[in-house]
Amino acid sequence: MGFLASGNGFYFVFLVLFFITFSSPQVASASSEEVGALLKWKASLENTSRLTLWSLPNNANNSSTPCTWYGVSCNADGSVIGLNLTSSGVTGTLYGLSFSSFPNLAAIDYSMNNFSGTIPPQIGYISKLTYLDLSTNQFSGIIPPEIGLLTNLETLHLVDNHLNGSIPKEIGQLRSLSELALYTNHLEGPIPASLGSLSNLARLYLYNNMLSGPIPPEMGNLVNLVEVYMNMNLLSGPIPSTLGNLDNLTVLHMFVNNLFGPIPQEIGKLKSLESLSLFSNKLSGSIPASLGNLSSLSLLHLYNNSLSGPIPKELGNLKSLTDLELSENQLNGSVPASLGNLSNLELLFLRDNQLSGPIPEELEYLTLLTVLAMDTNQFYGHLPERICQGGKLQNFTVNNNRLTGPIPKSLRNCSSLKRLRVEGNQLTGNISDNLGIYPNLYFVSLNDNNFYGELSENWSRCKRLTTLHIARNNISGSIPPEFGNSTQLQELDFSSNHIVGEIPKEFGNLNHLLKLVLSNNQLSGSIPQELGSLAELTYLDLSANRFSGSIPTTLGNSLPLFQLNLSWNNISEEIPVQICNLVHLTLLDLSHNELRGEIPSAINKLQSLERLNLSRNELSGGIPKTFEAMSLSSIDISCNELQGPIPNSVAFMNASIETLQGNKYLCGNITGLKPCKNPSAVNKHDPKKSHKLVLMISLPLLGSILLLCAFIALFISYERKKRKPEVEQRDVQVEDVFSISAFDGRAMYDEIVKATNDFDATYCIGKGGFGNVYKAKLQSLGIVAVKKLHSLSEMADRKGFIDEVRALTEIRHRNIVKLHGFCSHTRHSFLIFEYLERGSLATILSRDEAAMELDWPKRVNVIKGVAHALSYMHHDCSQPIVHRDISSNNVLLDSEYEAYVSDFGTAKLLKLDSSNWSAVAGTYGYVAPVNKLSPMFLTI
Length: 940
Prior knowledge:
The chain contains 14 helices and 61 strands. By secondary structure, it is an alpha/beta fold.
């Protein structure tokens, strides 16, 4: 810190000159008491190789001079005045040193050794001591109050020890003290107000302790202070305005404390101040315009506080400023154009505020700028055209704003760039042309924009590139095989684009790749075996593509993998047993494929596995009992051809029936599954006798059933001739229909009626044209939303209703509200939906507080969620689906503001001429244009 370069350096030079002057052999001899005290102390020390001269000749007595000994300095009379053992490797304590034996001792430097124990109170006996440095040792205990007796002391350094307790108020008696350095200890308690009496103090270093309480206003009396470091403590309260009296102050560092209140205007009076660092406190209010008077200031750190209001334009007067950091506050308004006057500025951090407006073009004049971080604000408009005209910009971070337009030309040619983050904006342009070749670039994130075009092989020429994210754009074309030359790549994310073709085999050359995400594209072909050579790969997501063939057995070689997602593809054949070698896997998702065969019994080797999804495949056979040795938290094996008992493990016992349904022959003690038969009961009888017995009973019974069926058929035929068509229709309507996932429909009907108190108004959470929505808490499904239809007596086609709703229950998409099923009863008919906590988008937007919480990044995410849902309904369903009524009323949000499309499935269920059908299918202004297309679209 500062004292190393100034105060301590002065004393070091002083001591060297002092020792040179007085260390030559003296005519007079030191007192026998001084010699004896040194020899006695040496005897108590260890690692004294540097002290070999500390001894007496055989013919000498204690009156011999020690002035030629290592680290010992004497005055003209031969009396010891300095002891300097810095960096001597000595181990021991100060207990054996008789301080009272050195009446003329003026300087002690025992720094950077292995001294331990406490600082003896007897050190206060050295009345002439002016310099004391015990830094970088293992001293513990308190600072003795007796240190206040050293009234001639000018320098006190006790840094980097294990001292505890409080700073003794007696230090305030050291009126000659110019340097006080106590940093990096375990000191606690308040800063004593008595320090305000140290009128000669120039440097105060108290940082990296556990000091608490307020900063004493008396500190404003120390008019000779040049440097103050109180950072990294637990100080609280306001910054005293009296600090504005410290005209000579050049450094004021109080960061990482609990200081609160405003920054005093008086700080602007410190004309000599060069460095002001107050970050990571709880300061509030606005940034004082008076800070613009600090003409010598080169560093201003105010980040991570609760400062509000605009950035004062007066900061543009700080022509010496090289580092300006105002991030992580609540600053608002636009960035003043006057910041373009800071011609020496190298670092500008304004990230994570509420700043808005365009980024000023004047920032182009900051030609020395190396870092520009303005992310997580509300900036809009285009990026400054010549932002890199100085050619020194290394870090350009503007992600999570509302910026539009292309990447400026100066950034395309900015060869100094090392880090580029523009994700979460609305930037456009052809990505093939927008960016160039960057020899120093290592991190790029272009996610969540509107870039189009094809991936350029230029990326492979950025030899230092480690991270490349271009997810959720409109990128098309194939992946150039030249990417295999980017051997430093660690993360690659091209997910949610329109990329086609195959994964280049050259990816197998990316030896340092940790994360590969290519999900939600149109990639096809086989998954390359070469991916198995990625020995450092930890995360692989190839889901939602068109991959076919088998799972490469070589993936079992990627031992560090902890997440593997190959879901929503056309992968076939068996699950390779080699996958079970991935012992660090926590997630394995192979769902929605065409996998066949049995689940490998060696799956129990995946001891770290927490989530397993094998649903929607063609897996057969039994479920391995080896599951019982695993610590899975969730599992989904639905919609396969599995059979036999469910393993006795926590994941299966806690599984919902949804995750097990669609397997005809599964059994177990879970609601919705048949109990398993006891195999021992079958073997109690002789097989041949049992077979004969079955024939004797079944044949006569079969004949009787056939006769009965014939009689019933004749009777029904006769009765039908007597009925009218209207009666037939009414009979169909009277029939009760239940279909709720794989649950017992009738039991579920009763549970819902009970949970809503027979659809009492207190449970109603919404009303619509087709019915009211109720909130119900069910034992089996948890909290659900139940839409009770006003009437099904006007249903145009009851069978069509049943078939259509059953089809809708098969829809699974992360942005579509899940329809669990339906109940049609003579008393009530209703649909059962997934419950979303935050309700509809319309409701949120109608409330000011909730609307403010839904900031622009969240709103963009809502729009993307709705777009994903519509894309799925239009393009990924076997029969395309048109919603017909997308509005804010029909978009629901969960607790994380993820969007879900709802209210599909009812528009087509009721007759056109019924009382609750309008002439237009949907809300005016929101009706889908494709609503009038051909009947190949299922409109819902």
